[in-house]
Amino acid sequence: MKKLSWTLILAVAFFASCQNQAPTQGADVSVPVRVTDVVKKTIFNTTSINGTVSPCASADLNTESEGKYRLNTNKRTGKPYRLGDKVYKGEVLVELDNPEYELSIRIEAKKLDLENAKQEYDKQQSLFEKGGVTQREMQNAELSYINTRYDFENAELQMKKLQVAAPFDGVIVDLPYFTPDVKISSGTKVASMMDYSKLIMQTDFPEKFITTIQAGQEAYVSNYNLKDDTLRAVITQLSPAINEASRTFKGVMSISNPELKMRPGMFVKAEVVVERRDSAIVVDRELVQNKRRGKVVYVVERNTAVEKRVNTGIETDTEVEIVSGLEPGEKLVIEGYQMLSNRAKVRVQK
């Protein structure tokens, strides 16, 4: 009987101890959260436009005379020019051999005539300054020099018709094959080249953007074959007229492509920036909760969650601009906010 009494006393004491500790444990409960500093950055909203890109310059290179075909060597590769080679303005890609044509031009004789005429003009000018010849004699020598110079320059132009040179910096995109030393006629296409370090995209914008999209706005262009490469573009031209049938207006974009990753003829997607805000407070959309009194986010102040009512601006698929209600430097709750209420105790986790 005495043993039973002690057991009963111990049980009552343990139960009383548990009752006394429960409120203390409840008072210490806090919600674990993670936070980040509120900072400012850029946010922009876009509209998607599809289209095909074209090179900023292209040309078919045709012969201007007839002669035997010879494809020159690319000095950078040590091999004859071929498709995909980068060439620079003035480089001679193809030369024609036509001895009969060269003889008819008589360029060496005209060069010698020019040298003699220049010497005679210099002599007559010196004598005129000393009073040894009349002004007419000096002017006749000058006229002879000018005419022989024109003859020589014209001969040089005629000789260049035996060469096919690059008219601008670019890339060879077509190079028809001709057997070396085969005679080809004037007007034969022997190469095509393009400059696509900048690309052009012509597109049609929906009518609803007529007051939103302006020349100078940015765009970001991508292709499904170049998933990791997005190129920057700028709207350069816009038509003020609306097409009555399609309810669209025409626009032109210039795309920077310095590494030549995007190719002419590609079908691309352009994200045109229709709204942009620099130095804005931007947060993930999921952090903004809709409650009866408006949109709210949570910040931490002295281990306490504080509900902040906010007004929003530009929204994207993942982010939203906070126009008012948050200040840079505040500790924004980014994990655990779903379990919070205003003034709830929190425990910030690293």
Summarize the structure.
This protein is an alpha+beta fold and 350 residues long. The chain has helices spanning 2-27, 99-105, 107-130, 135-160; strands spanning 31-37, 40-62, 67-71, 73-74, 79-80, 86-87, 92-97, 163-165, 170-174, 183-184, 189-206, 218-222, 231-238, 248-256, 267-284, 289-291, 294-301, 304-309, 311-315, 319-324, 331-335, 346-348.
Could you describe the 3D structure shown?
It is built from 4 helices and 22 strands. With 350 residues, it is an alpha+beta fold. It folds into 4 domains: 31-43 and 279-348, conserved putative lor/sdh protein from methanococcus maripaludis s2 fold (Beta Barrel); 46-54 and 195-276, Efflux pump adaptor protein, beta barrel domain (Elongation Factor Tu (Ef-tu), domain 3, Beta Barrel); 64-95 and 165-187, no CATH class; 101-160, Helix Hairpins. It has a 6-stranded antiparallel β-barrel with strand order 2-11-14-13-12-15. Helix 3 runs antiparallel to helix 4 (135-160). The radius of gyration is 40 Å and the shape is elongated. It starts with a helix and ends with a strand.
- Main structural class: alpha+beta
Sheet with the most strands: spatial strand order: 2-11-14-13-12-15
Largest sheet: 6 strands, antiparallel, barrel
Give a count of the beta strands, DSSP E runs of length 2 or more: 22
Count of structural domains: 4
* Helix-strand topology string: HEEEEEEEHHHEEEEEEEEEEEEEEE
Q: Just give the CATH class of the largest domain.
A: Mainly Beta
Kindly estimate the percentage of residues that lie in beta strands according to DSSP.
35-45%
CATH topology of the largest domain: Elongation Factor Tu (Ef-tu), domain 3
Give the C-alpha Rg. 40 Å
CATH-defined architecture of the largest domain: Beta Barrel
- Percent range of helical residues: 10-25%
Extract low-pLDDT stretches: 1-26
pLDDT averaged over residues? 90
